[in-house]
Specification:
- The complex is a heterodimer of chains A (about 240) and B (about 180).
- Chain A has 2 domains: about 90 residues; about 130 residues, no CATH class.
- Helices cover about 25% and strands about 35% of the residues of chain A.
- Chain A has 2 helices and 18 strands.
- In chain A, strand 11 and strand 12 form a beta hairpin.
- In chain A, helix 1 runs antiparallel to helix 2.
- Chain A is elongated and about 100 Å long.
- The two termini of chain A are about 20 Å apart.
- The relative contact order of chain A is 0.21.
- Chain B has about 180 residues and is of the alpha+beta class.
- Chain B folds into 2 domains: about 80 residues, no CATH class; about 80 residues, no CATH class.
- Chain B is about 30% helix and about 25% strand.
- In chain B, the strands form 5 sheets. In chain B, strands 6-5-9 form a 3-stranded antiparallel sheet, with no helix packed on it. In chain B, strands 1-2 form a two-stranded antiparallel ribbon. In chain B, strands 3-11 form a two-stranded antiparallel sheet.
- In chain B, strand 5 and strand 6 form a beta hairpin.
- In chain B, helix 1 packs antiparallel against helix 2.
- The two termini of chain B are about 35 Å apart.
- The chains are: A alpha+beta (about 240), B alpha+beta (about 180).
- Chains A and B meet through helix 1, strand 1, strand 2 and helix 2 of A and helix 1, strand 7 and helix 2 of B.
Chain lengths: ~240, ~180
Amino acid sequence: MDRALFAAASGMAAQQRNLDTIADNLANAGVVGFKGSAQSFAELIAPGGQGLGTVALGSRVLFAQGKLARSGGPFDLAIDGPGFFTVVDGRGRRLYTRDGAFSRSADGTLRNAADYRLAGITIPRDALTVTVGGDGSVRATFAVGARMLGRIRLAEFAAPEHLRPLDGAVFAATPESGGARDVTAGSPDGPKLDFGMLEESNVTIIDAMMQILTAQRAYEANAKGVQAADEMLRIANNLQRG
Amino acid sequence: MVAARTRLEIATENLANVSTDGFRRIDARGFLTALGVTIARRTSGEGGALRHTGRDFDLAILGRGAFRVRDSAGRVSETRAGGFIREADGTLHDCRGRVVLGLHGALRVPSGGIVDARALGLPPASRVRSGFLEGPAVDAIAEMIDVLSAERSFESAEKAVAAIDATRQKSADTARVK
């Protein structure tokens, strides 16, 4: 009976963690460049080969492409394909994100909402309009003529799934993910940059709602298992008096 | 009562794994023996439904066979759960950190490469589908019914034990009077 109690309780604990992950996905469903996570589970097996229930192993980020949507921002960028923008935070640390909602700040750099600076590009004060090509080349027009300012490079990783999420849309490199590798956008089978577009989060509210319903019912079913095991223990304990 | 307890253990175990990818339901089979009913455990051969994930290294096996994985202690085990992560060196790891084995040692996948059934050493008729996971083969409703019926049969067994106990009590009392 102890085994039944334990197995059912392990199921409740695992579904609790699952709900945490789904709730986090749902909360960030509207965040540009957000990548949802999924909890993975494994069967718990005793050394003798008998099952002991389940365990939640932790969540992993799903790097599936989000939907690209046309946006109004003058410096909005979206990556179509793999890769990340390299941004620099206030302390000079290099971070990686797919959130391309940049705006021009007073010092000429492009910064996103979290005030991270896009690496490698500065826009001169007198630039009138700026356009970014599919290959990442940045062109600006001035009162007299136009000129290329540089190129936005994308970062790729050997094992992107080992990147450490700082928040849902910004990641830091880890020893397991390998170092960032420069890739040029616009090559035939590589990523492409879309100017004037943003990548929506890859979480759809309907999927997340369905997952919540399933997880909740699984939690309830396991709770019933605990109740049944408890009831049987009660009966066993009352045998003497019966 | 022991049989009912074993049935409850099996049902709760199945219920606990209602979200575990690649999990195969455990069947409880009752046998009548000289000592009453015993329950045998048998892992069901029925696979779960495939679920689309879109990740390159989420692999589902169509047909028989299983992925062979090796843990850090060198133990090799088999699993149908195909949610793998490609490491920087090209090897695949599952979510417990076990490395996926091919025909000759650890399987290596080149960057942008795909995994095929032959390299994994699966039976010839089996195929591997990328972007899908084999879901758990557990029917929560059937398991709930099993939990309830195990509980009730435990109750009836308890009544039988109580009745036998009462009968013996009576005969003991009778013997004392005479």
